[in-house]
Amino acid sequence: MINKKVANINEAMHGVTDNMTLMLGGFGLCGIPENAIAHLVKTGVKGLTCISNNAGVDDFGLGLLLHKHQIKKMISSYVGENDEFERQMLSGELDVELVPQGTLVERCRAAQSGFPAFYTPAGFGTEVAEGKETREFNGKMYVLEKAFEADFAFVKAWKGDEAGNLIFKGTARNFNPAMCGAAKITVAEVEELVPAGTLDPNQIHIPGIFIQRIFQGEVYEKRIEQRTVRKKS
């Protein structure tokens, strides 16, 4: 069985350079690859195009890269929790491509499956469809959307084995599975890394064939983006 385990974060991130296109899993702050993001901040790579549902918050997640101006373009669905993102976008410092959420995940999935493009009704008749091919199917108009082309995908799972098989936990599953195998190299960081063959095959969400590198992450903060509690009765 092929062993996808790498010794450390430096080996896992080998080959990441300026001006690359990166996919980063997560939804809000849930299931984000914290170790990979921290390493990108530390190394100072710049000119990045980042594909992610959102850009974290001002002091965590991809917000850390934004503060250091390491991102030149964001391809996202939701950006409402990051003041620095808003400032850079409105000032023209940051190139932003807003994508309907379903289209965003489907462009990941298309790349994962090897499809160059697909038709979707989302965005027809809006700015999203400008400059894109449209076509009618059964009386309804659709927009042609292209699969993403990314150099690296960074995903975070709860548990994985040395063969690269992954299990996600709860809502941290979100965009992570769709980004596995959707880039030239997929790097998975996990909370618990076990020997190959020890995971229950019926519980595996992503098979190891979609993963090139896997390592056990460290010190996960798992911040809650917006904490909501019930009032005492």
TrEMBL record:
Keywords tagged on the record: Transferase
Pfam family, one: CoA_trans
Recorded GO MF terms: CoA-transferase activity
Gene3D superfamilies on file: Glutaconate Coenzyme A-transferase
PROSITE patterns registered for this protein in UniProt: COA_TRANSF_1
Database matches in InterPro entries: 3-oxoacid_CoA-transf_A, CoA_trans_fam_I, CoA_transf_BS, NagB/RpiA_transferase-like
Family indicated by similarity: Belongs to the 3-oxoacid CoA-transferase subunit A family.
The protein's name in its UniProt record: Succinyl-CoA--3-ketoacid-CoA transferase
Upper taxonomic lineage: Bacteria, Pseudomonadati, Bacteroidota, Flavobacteriia, Flavobacteriales
